[in-house]
Amino acid sequence: MSETIFSKIIRREVPAEIVYEDDQCLAFRDIDPQAPTHVLIIPKEPIRSLSELEEEHQALAGHLLLTAAKVAADLGLDSGYRLVTNCGKEGGQAVDHLHFHLLGGRAMQWPPG
Ligand code: DGP
Question: I need a labelling partner for 76 at 20 to 30 A (CA). Which of 7, 33, 67, 101 fits?
Answer without folding.
Answer: 7
